[in-house]
Amino acid sequence: MRHGWVREPARILVVGGGYVGMYTALRLQKKLKQELRSGAVEIVVVTPDPYMTYQPFLPEAAAGSISPRHVVVSLRSVLEHCHVIVGEVVSVDHAKRTAAYTTLASKDEGTGPAALTYDELVLAPGSVSRTLPVPGLAEFGIGFKTVEEAVGLRNHVIEQLDIASSTRDPAVRDAALTFVFVGGGYAGVEALGELEDMARYAVKYYHNVKPEDLKWILVEASDRILPEVGPEMGLYTIRELRGRNVDVRLGTRLESCENRTAVLSDGSRFPTRTVVWTAGVKPSPLLAATDLPLTDRGRLRCTAALAVDGAAHAWGAGDAAAVPDLTAEEEGTQCAPNAQHAVRQARTLADNIAASLRGQALTDYEHAYVGSVASLGLHKGVAHVYGRKLKGYPAWFMHRVYHLSRVPTVNRKARVLTEWTLSALFKREIVSLGSLERPRAEFELAAGPVPPEDPSAPPAGGPKGSP
């Protein structure tokens, strides 16, 4: 513990408010209730966003099946015994037990990053989109990792239908109705499946756009999609998507998307206004700004007890950590960076921190992967759970039941279930609220600079003496 003239509480610093960050802090609140009450321990959470995003629901948020605000959980409301700082840790000096961070006020203050000392460090900044130097990607690509991106993509797709319906230029229409998704993992397949389903429903309300006018293209560099559900279910998914007129291209890469044209490695060229990039993730760049040991892939080198290997009082889990998989048959296998492991690792991590503070033995994390479920749109899905393979409606139903059981807080469960019920009883909402992304645009136009007056022009009220 830190010492001075007055004994200070042991500070547990949690970096990141995602799955690991939120669930670890939530568990610590429960395990260290007595220490928190007495002031012997304090928990500080530093996170760029004041909420945790339940990412498995992003495709449904993009399709309008769930309200975006129900995909996120307010950290302040669930971490009531923690000090939540909305900011970003920019570096960590673990040798000195110090983290440098910025907040939303840092720029106005002009003081630069502030320093925060700690006794125990939980480093869980998660991951960021893994991009490649594809020409035009930075200018025209759309990500799919945050709730803001999901809402933006929904608005964008509906906006393309509006453009196609109103233009007289066949080239503009063709580009507006062509949607290219890069990456055949969960994010890409589920996002495409949900949005294709939504768009096909939406064109019922356009007098000059038909479902067969829409062109959906899924580009995957490997020879299969959704590897987590196994080869058989992966092949079923390909057949299902192709049956819905989705052009699935395996062993293919995006070479360029400059000038609103997607150029693929097989030589194909598609004029398009929509390129969605879901080709994997990589560990947060913050890890490189620490003095902690990393693997050759840039993840924290951790033990099975979720402690950073060779760094006392430092802990890691989730996407940012390389954790040994004790259930794997092959030695040296690491836990997959997914939500299933992250949530369970957070529980073990919090228990081990509490045990460490109390001088008790640590517990190794051990969890056998139970399988995966994926939604392909309304009433469509695939699943491979406990060795059982499901497809169609049963898999879709299992997808919803599983994720409803995992989304945090009873409040969120009730709201999501209510929205699903209402969606089953009433028609879909197909309104684009693209103006939300620039809410001040209209006011800026109205309040813009007034053009200089023409001295020869009459006054605004008309010529002098006029009524």
TrEMBL record:
Region (Disordered): 444-467
Pro residues bias (residue ranges): 449-467
Domain FAD/NAD(P)-binding as annotated: residue spans: 11-343
UniProt cross-references to InterPro entries, sorted A to Z: FAD/NAD-bd_sf, FAD/NAD-binding_dom, NDH-2
Keywords recorded for this protein, A-Z: FAD, Flavoprotein, NAD, Oxidoreductase
Gene3D superfamilies: 3.50.50.100
Family: Belongs to the NADH dehydrogenase family.
Protein name, UniProt field: NAD(P)/FAD-dependent oxidoreductase
